[in-house]
Structure formats: structure tokens, C-alpha cells
Fold these 4 entries.
Entry 1:
Amino acid sequence: MLSAKRLQPIQQLSEQREDAAAEALAEARRQLAQRESQLRELENYREPTGSLTSVELLLNREAFRLKLNEAIAQQRRAIEQSRRVVEQQRQRWLASHRQTQVYDHLAERSREHERQRNEQRAQRDLDELALRSAAPGSPT
């Protein structure tokens, strides 16, 4: 079994990867929120059709509405893409988090194993000392 000391660099690397994955997930979530906010702004920009006075104004308004509708559709596609990125980053973070937990568990087991070995060694030393002091002719 690897010693806890030898596992430490692997643990640290795993934690760094997990932190990087968490940061990437947070950034993906921020982007998604920003795109959703932009969509709301675009949708709020639509105004109800009022009474129009000229054909030219009507055509301009209709062209604007078409462009606005296209911008909204494009923003919705961007949001769906952002949602996929968020899910991918979430999966990446989960995988790195599980990896970190594995290394943490392995290091903990290694420390426990080392502790038991040290306790056994100390007990063996005490037993030897007790045997020597109980032996005939030994100074007490």
C-alpha cells in the first residue's frame, strides 16, 4: 500500500483538477444565466402592434419584428447549447470529485494502516522490554 505521504501529490493534483472542473462549471452556469437574461431582454423588447400611420412605418416595424424574432430564436439556440455545456461540465466535475474522494479514502486507509503498524511496533517493543525485565538475572 502506498504511504499517505506518497499519495499526497496525487491527492493535491486530484483536488486541483476538481477545483478547475468546479470553476468551469461555475463559468458555464454564469454564461447560461447571461444568455437567459439576454433572451428575456429580447422578448421584453417586443412591443404590441399599435396603430400605424404609414405603409413604410408598417414595413419597417415588420422587418424589425422579423429580425427580433430571429435574434430570439438564435438566443434560444445559444441557451440550449449553454445548457449542454453546463451538463458536460457538471459531469466532468462529478467525475473529478469522485476521483478526489477515491484518493482521499485511499490516503485515509494508508494513514490508518501506518497507525496500526506503529501501534503493533510499539506493542512489540513493550513486550520485548517486559520479557527482558522478567528474565532471570536481569537488572530491575
Entry 2:
Amino acid sequence: MKKLSARRRHPLAAVVVLLLALATTGMVYAAFVPTRDAKADETAQSLTIEEGKKLYAVGCASCHGTGGQGSSDGPSLVGVGAAAVDFQVGTGRMPAATSQGAQVPKKKKVYTQAEIDQLAAFIASLGAGPSVPTEAQYGPEGADIAKGGDLFRNNCAQCHNFTGKGGALTHGKYAPDLESVDPKHIYEAMQTGPQNMPSFPDTTLSEQNKKDIIAYLNAVNGDETVNPGGLELGGLGPVSEGLFAWIFGLGALIAVAVWVAARTAKAKKS
């Protein structure tokens, strides 16, 4: 009887065995599943890049070179990043028409967003560059509209006007109107500096600064915009306002002067 009782299992033995089995299963899962997921993501990214390469060969290589190295007809795309592709192709500026003016205008886009993502992935694989921003980066959450107005007037208004209405530059070039432009594309333009625009990397304008500027533009160009100063005259700034003052203000003064002179002449005759 003593021998049988000595060999009897402890009541907690089954629990300990179960816990050991669960721990072993967890370690095996942790060791293999993330690797499998990482490989799946890597495969999907490779397929995206490959599809982008095919699109690039048909629609872009004739100007930018087969490897994105550039040519006499188009600049190098190595290192421009996915953000530049998403902006240029997403706004229809690329592919460019055969004959262009002083700069490439915005037009209806040729590719779907899925195809743009594939092109962007391929160009990003050629060299590190700015990535496509997320909604958290350019969305209104946490933005300071007043600070954005200060930043816009100090860094952007010289070309785009005080409320983003655009303006003329030299030799037929121009700064485009920013009304109704996708906030993502405004962010990407600040990141990449397309055409005549300088780039504003995070070292110049932080991510929060860009968010604030976009919030300001949305506020002054929104559907519910209120102009406390009265008629905005197109929002074109002091030139249009000064012209309005000269034409209507000076014109009113001339009319008053003529009226006073006429009344004075009548008074003298009587």
C-alpha cells in the first residue's frame, strides 16, 4: 500500500503538464507565424513593385529612362520617393502631354489609384525618398488654423497669394490655385517641391506645420467660409483691393467734386 501511494500522481500534475503544453504551443506559434506573415507581406510588395515596373515601362520609360535614370526629355526619378509619384500622377500632371507650355498643368488623371500605388512602389524601390503621407499626417485632427495662417503667409503667400488663389510667376509660369486640392496632394507638394515650388522637408516645416497650413487652406477656402472684412474681391490681395479703391474710391471723389462745382456754379448765377 505504501508503494502504491508513493507512485500516485500529485493532484496538480495535470495542470502543470497542460500549462507546459500551452507555453510550448505559444512559443512555436510566435516563432513561425510572424515570419510567415512577414514573408507574405514581402511577397505582396514584390508583386506590387513588379506591376509598377510594367506600368512604368509603358507610360514613363520613354522620357525618364528604363531605370528611372532620366534623359533629355525627363529628369531622374531615383530618390524622388513615392510621394512625388502620387502627387504628379494623382493630379494628372504625369504623364505629360507631348507639347507643354512653361509648366505642366493639372489635368484629369490617367491611372487608377491602385495603378498609382504600384508605380509609386516601383519608383520608391529605386532609391529612398519621401513616402506617401497618411491621413493622420494631413488630416484636421490636432491642427492649429491660426498658426497655419501665419506659416502660409510667411512661406507660401508670395506665390500662392494670401488665401491660396494662385498667382503669376516669371516667363509664363504660375503658382496654381489651391482651392479644392486634395489635402494629401498639398502635403506631398510641400514634401517634394514639384516644378517651380521649393521643397519643405520636415527640417524646414515640421509634420505639424504642414498639417496646420492645410487646415488654414481648408478654412479660408471651405464652403462655409465667412469673410468678416466684407467682399473678398476674389481673395487676390492688395493689387485687386488697390485697383478697386482707385476705380470706385477715386471715381466717387470725382463725382462729388463735379456735383459740388455744379451746385456752386448754379448758386453764383442765381
Entry 3:
Amino acid sequence: MQKISAFLLRLLGWKVNGFVVPEPKCIIIGVPHTSAWDFVISYLFYTSLGGKASVLVKKEFFFWPVGFFVRKMGGVPIDRSKGANVIRQAVHHFKTREHLHLAMTPEGTRKPIKRWKAGFHTIAKMADVPVYLGSFDWGPKVISIWEKFELTDDAQADIRRMKDFYREKGIQGRFPENFTTEY
């Protein structure tokens, strides 16, 4: 699958800038999230490097035969019903697995949004896992994993630092009007 993924990325015009995260458990931030294609491109990217990333998917998608493919592509079932705590469920997955590279988008939607969600921060702190910054830049079509991002105890300050990082890189979404690094 690694060679097929690399071939498909090249066929689609994407360049790769990154590595498989060395720690067995981490959160990889994916920004900007403006299109459903972001998942496909990031899946091909990490697979082409020889990695296996996971994403949180509502449990309703795990029915036969769709569930088989969702799991194969790294889907981790999450109960989003009333009263369910997604953060606790994600932390549980980190605590009970030997390997988990969880890809998350702090925007939480493909629509333009100023206020990024801090769930990734809470999960990383509770599960004691590092966070790496990643990007899918639709301008030059470069997908990257950057450096490890050191978290503080101030989630909002960390999100501001992340936004500054992405602004400085000039990252563009597939639909640029749906991505902002404003506070």
C-alpha cells in the first residue's frame, strides 16, 4: 500500500515533506481543513511514508461492509450520542493501545471558523502524548509534518502560537476562503 499511495500522490501532483512520527503514540494536527479531500490526501501521505494514522469517526459508520473499510483506513469508533464524552473515549484509546497516531483538525469543521477547538490539547495532556503539526497546503500541493509542538497548560495561548505558525508558513486550504488564522 505504501508504494501505491506514493504513486497516487505523485499522480495527483502532491509533494511530500515529512516523516513518520517516531513516538508510538501522538496527535498529528492537520491544518487547514477546508475539504473532505484533506482526509484522502493525508491518508495517502502518511501511508506513503510507511505510517498508519487514525482518525476519530462516529460509531454509526462502523456497519458492515462500510465499517471494514473505515477501520482499514484508521477509523477509531467514537460514541457522539448525548452524554458521551469524546475526550475520555480518545484518552482511553491512547491508554489501551500500543500504537496510536491520531490525526485531528482543531478547526472541527470545513467551514470558516476563528475559534479552534481545544479538544486535541486536552486529550494530549490527559493521555500524556506529544503533538506534531501537519499541513496540507493546496497552493503548491505540499503535504507536511513539521516539528513537535510543545504544549503549555494554556490551551488558548498554544492555539494562538499554532495559528501564528501556520500564518507564517502561508498555508492554503483547498478552499482558501474557509481557512483563517485570525484569533
Entry 4:
Amino acid sequence: MDNASANQLILSYVQGWLAADREQILSTLDPACVVIESYGPTYRGKEMVGRWIDSWFAPGNVVTRWEITSFTATSEECFFEWDFACISDGERGGFEGASIARLSEGRIVYLREYATTAPRHEWEG
């Protein structure tokens, strides 16, 4: 998969979350996909990801920002950094993070997220 196609696939996944569009999110995933969230939960297969999406978009939950700030791809993998914000269970939250994705035949087969756990700052030794 070329860089532009990989970038479009990841953008479609992210835009699906921003639009709360279950079908758009699922359309980017391989049937046997694995998605690992930054805080540990692992979802195996599109059916389980679909159940996660349904539960995540409970009334009042919304992704308010998911901006990709850098993107690099090879033919089978991509790496991207992002800035994420949401309202979940009535609480506003957000963090910076990065993801690794493995791609095959135009779909995401593996996606693992990593989160920044503290505000970035300059080290002053």
C-alpha cells in the first residue's frame, strides 16, 4: 500500500470516530483485526470492535478532536502521532498519542495506540 492510500485509510478510520459513524470505522478494518487501546483493552475482530463502538457512543459520548499531527507509512505499516479529545461519561478529556498500524489489502489488520501520560515539557536538568 502506498503512503497516500495508507494515509487515506487511517484518515477514514479517524473521521469515522469524529462522525460517530460505526460503518465508516468498521469499513477500514480487516475482519480478523486487532485493536489495542492505549490503556489496555484489546478488541479482536470486527464484531467485537462493533460492540465496543456501540458501547463507547453511549448517549453523551463524543469524540471532539482527533487530529493527526504526523504520519509515516511503509508498504505494510504506518506510524502516526495525534492529538485526541472527547467527552465520555460527562467528562471532558484528551491526550496526545501515537499509533502503529499494520495494513493488508487496503484494510487495518492491527492497530495499537500509545498515550502521553503527562503534559509535555522542556527538561531543565
